[in-house]
Design goal:
Layout lengths: L2 H19 L7 E2 L11 E3 L4 E7 L3 H4 L1 E8 L2 E2 L9 E5 L3 E5 L1 H10 L4 E4 L8 E7 H11 L1 E4 L11 H11 L5
Parallel strand pairs: 3-6
Antiparallel strand pairs: 1-2, 2-3, 4-5, 4-9, 6-7, 7-10, 8-9
């Protein structure tokens, strides 16, 4: 996905999360109008803190969620976050965790950082590739997992796409 497409998709996801939390935090808003603002994607004045939003729709196909910690040889994402919460959007669920809980999960499961160049990137990043299902199970214990409604613009029903990929690559369902 090209940067402009990814940015637009990210904006839609952030808008939907703001709508979701408005009943509890009516002053919450995205930070997209503030220009380059890397501390978090959503600001919540009521608690004087923010939310980082990570979309990872590929996790439904790969079985892994990417948790970036370094880009182009510099600390990034999870390594530098100032947000109180992280919301990982994987197409069917919103996985809510604190950064500390994410690091505890990584440590408890002995994950290692993995170098790769992501789609749309030109330089290498380091990230933890963590089991999607393990992270969801962990989040149900220490954070929250919210199902995305089918009529939501951020719901991603990729069953048929995954099924076609399995046929093409002769992959058997898990």
């Amino acid at each position: 996905m090209e940067f402009k497409e990814a940015k637009k998709a990210g904006d839609i996801i952030e808008d939907e999360i703001v709508k979701l939390i408005h009943s509890k935090y009516p002053l919450a808003k995205t930070t997209k109008d503030l220009g380059k603002f890397s501390d978090y994607d959503i600001w919540i004045p009521e608690i004087n803190d923010g939310i980082e939003v990570k979309g990872d729709y590929m996790s439904a196909e790969t079985g892994n969620i990417v948790l970036e910690v370094e880009m182009s040889g510099k600390l990034s994402a999870l390594s530098l976050t100032k947000a109180k919460f992280w919301v990982i959007v994987e197409g069917y669920r919103l996985i809510w965790l604190t950064p500390l809980d994410i690091y505890r999960f990584i440590e408890q499961n002995n994950y290692n950082r993995f170098p790769f160049i992501g789609n749309g990137d030109t330089e290498e990043k380091l990230a933890y590739l963590v089991s999607h299902e393990r992270l969801v199970t962990y989040a149900r214990k220490v954070g929250d997992v919210i199902m995305i409604k089918e009529n939501s613009p951020i719901y991603f029903d990729n069953y048929s796409k995954r099924k076609d990929l399995m046929k093409e690559n002769k992959i058997k369902p898990k």
